[in-house]
Amino acid sequence: MKTVILGDSGLLGQALVQHFCRDAKAEVFGISTSPKALPSSGAQLKARYVHIRLDVLTQQKAIKNLLLSEKPDLVINSIALADIGDCEACPELAEVYNVQLPVFLSDISAASGAYFIQISSDQVFDGMKLGLLREGDAINPVNLYGATKVACERKILETNPNALLARTNIVGYRGWEKSHTFVEWLENALAHRKEADLFDDYVTSSIHVRLFAEALSLAFKKRLKGVYHIASRDAVSKYEFALSISRRLGWDSTRCRKISMANSSLFPRRPAYLALDVKKFERATGASLPPIAKTVECLVDDFNARHGR
Ligand SMILES: NC(=O)c1ccc[n+]([C@@H]2O[C@H](COP(=O)([O-])OP(=O)(O)OC[C@H]3O[C@@H](n4cnc5c(N)ncnc54)[C@H](OP(=O)(O)O)[C@@H]3O)[C@@H](O)[C@H]2O)c1
After folding, report:
1. What's the gap in Å between 302 CA and the centre of ligand 1?
2. Which of 170, 204, 207, 208 to mutate to test the pocket of ligand 1 (most atoms within 8 A of CB)?
3. Atom in ligand 1 nearest the alpha carbon of residue 7
4. Rounded to the nearest whole angstrom, what is the distance from the C-alpha of residue 11 to the centroid of ligand 1?
5. What is the CATH number of domain 2-238+264-306?
6. 102 confidence band (pLDDT: 50, 70, 90)
7. Percent residues over pLDDT 90 in the chain
8. What count of other Cβ atoms lies within 10 Å of the Cβ of residue 307?
């Protein structure tokens, strides 16, 4: 099976490459501007994965030629302007990355006969509903990042009815020096005996990137079409999430300080309550999505592997 992963050096892209290279017959092409392929953790990755250094903003012809000539079975776009603050600071770039680029990739994937997956976000909601959010619930983004994800969903639904739009909230380690993920920030603070301020009124159904990659693989096998929530089956606040991780890793959890997002001056705004209902995905695939406890276990495994424990 041939898979193209756009954004192979990113948080999700790294997990997707690892996941899709497991198959003995896999051929995985990973694209990003990174000069290096992922560090090969074994012969498996080396033999089945090719990194192609391309800039998707300036080398669209090369991407088009690649997809039309290789005719992959599956294309997953994990490239985005994913930082909520960067989107607000550079709205034109956010539109290019989060709307125009995914629509372009979706169109070429359809023309090449590939199944296309676009990653969307829980930020399409306003976070006012204190209950599980279903796919059909009203969307009303409170920041520009969420607005670009809504525009992207709408355009792809119109132009590629076979595509999957996966709304999620992912967590994990990325290993970039230039910017840290939530988990990397938390580890930096708590493992080094600093304090971490954490919202107890910002609730998400965060899922570990490895578990999310597995779920996307299942979605591909079932050829799910349209919008699906793919996340942990329950939801907790950032404060509770951080407490669970720090207790499991033996960090001093008294350093997790409970604060309120509603009383903070956080900008851009985040929607407060984002518990995603994943039953549509579970019904369509016959599989259960994991609880947040499983995501915490994955993070503990990552931490131990990174520190040779
Ligand atoms: N992280 C979250 O909490 C979260 C939550 C919900 C949804 N999502 C969505 O999930 C998807 C994946 O997010 P992520 O956190 O994995 O993103 P990420 O870590 O920021 O990765 C983005 C990827 O895009 C590549 N890229 C950026 N500009 C490029 C260009 N001009 N040409 C080629 N490659 C380029 C980056 O590689 P180089 O810089 O090396 O080129 C990197 O591989 C996104 O759609 C995001 O909106 C993320």
Report:
1. 20
2. 170
3. 43
4. 7
5. 3.40.50.720
6. very high
7. 93
8. 10
